[in-house]
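Following up on my earlier thread - several people asked me to post the actual chain instead of describing it. Fair enough. Here it is, all 159 residues.
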Amino acid sequence: MPADTTWSRVPGTAQLAGYAYRRAFRHVSVPNGHGGLIQYSTGRGALLTCAGQDVLLMPQGAPFDRAVDNMFRYNVLTDAALAPADVAQDLRHLTCGPDGHFTFGDLPAGAWYVVTMIGSDPGDVAVSAVRTQADQTAHVTLQHRWNWPPSWRHPPSLW
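Reply from S.P.:
Thanks for posting it. Predicted structure:
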């Protein structure tokens, strides 16, 4: 597998600022009168963030595409274990702040994946794709949603 992510090793002038959160609601079930249950959410929900969790930043490219898909699919934050050793140096880490915010600096312009865990026990993996440009700050908000990986990455299949 060619390491087409070597461009990410060069220091740059871009920044990436992000926030990761989700709302966790309490669910209530009531009988519907026909032998079933109606389920609904109550309250405003508790705000969960990535506070204290590892935030991974990796360049988009063949070595990391499958790794990111597997992180989301299996709800685990793993890194070099899923990517070849020759591209492990392209992976960047930092710890999410207590308020759920994080910032990566000195990035080259390019396309990146941002991955983190929201909440804990067990938490939910959140993934986003973002593009940086020289001398600019890109902003990303990560939320756990069932929209990863993008449909174009996998051909459609019949049931």
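The helical segments are 62-74. That should answer part of your original question.
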